[in-house]
Amino acid sequence: MKILVINGPNLNMLGTREKEIYGDESYGELVAFIKVTAKKEGVKVKVVQYNCEGKIVTAIQRARGRYDGIIINAGAYTHTSIAILDALRAAEVHAAEVHLSDIYSREEYRRHSYISEYAFASFVGKGKEGYAEALRALKKGAVSR
Ligand code: DQA
């Protein structure tokens, strides 16, 4: 099983960015955690991070037929990007949404997620553990689209 993890804008700034919200672990530590978790679960994983919306769209398009699932934390594009939603629909790949923070208990403008209109599950406010849960959920394949 092959899973593509896509992290969006500003996630590369973890560890220095708004620590009171996102904690003090670096992006590198998050990636290491995802890779260790994937290994334990016997799943192949590729982790990418893009600040540009178009690069995220392209990565999703290319995942079609190549990956068994996507885990996506689209950062702020979550709340704005119909293009990313359309790409997910076009790629027809199982997708789980992750957010380190609980977007539903933060500012009003974070409370809508375009990604959740496609994702079969969302893991929010659980920090990096959300990625582990998403990975296990995709592995289980309990939900099909
Ligand atoms: C985030 C939440 C988004 O609202 C924010 O723009 C981010 C990070 C999260 O992981 O909690 O960049 O996706």
What would you say about this model in short?
The protein is 36% helix and 18% strand.
Give a verbal description of the structure.
- The structure is a single chain.
- The protein has 145 residues and is α/β, with parallel strands linked by helices.
- 36% of the residues lie in helices and 18% in strands.
- It has a 5-stranded parallel beta sheet with strand order 2-1-3-4-5, sandwiched between helices.
- Helix 2 runs parallel beside helix 5 and helix 3 runs parallel beside helix 4.
- It is globular.
- The mean pLDDT is 96.
- It binds 1,3,4-trihydroxy-5-OXO-cyclohexanecarboxylic acid.
- 1,3,4-trihydroxy-5-OXO-cyclohexanecarboxylic acid (DQA) binds next to loops.
- The site of 1,3,4-trihydroxy-5-OXO-cyclohexanecarboxylic acid has 10 residues, from loops.
Mean pLDDT: 96
Could you tell me how far the N terminus lies from the C terminus, measured between alpha carbons in angstroms?
17 Å
Query: What share of the residues lie within helices?
Result: 25-40%
Estimated radius of gyration: 14 Å
Which structural class matches the secondary elements? alpha/beta
Main sheet makeup: 5 strands, parallel
- Which band does the percent of strand residues land in? 15-25%
Bound molecules: 1,3,4-trihydroxy-5-OXO-cyclohexanecarboxylic acid
Shape: globular
**How many helices in DSSP terms?**
5
Provide the low-confidence segments as ranges: none
Biggest sheet, spatial arrangement of strands: 2-1-3-4-5
* Secondary structure tally: strands: 5
The helix/strand series, from N terminus to C terminus, equals: EHHEHEHEEH
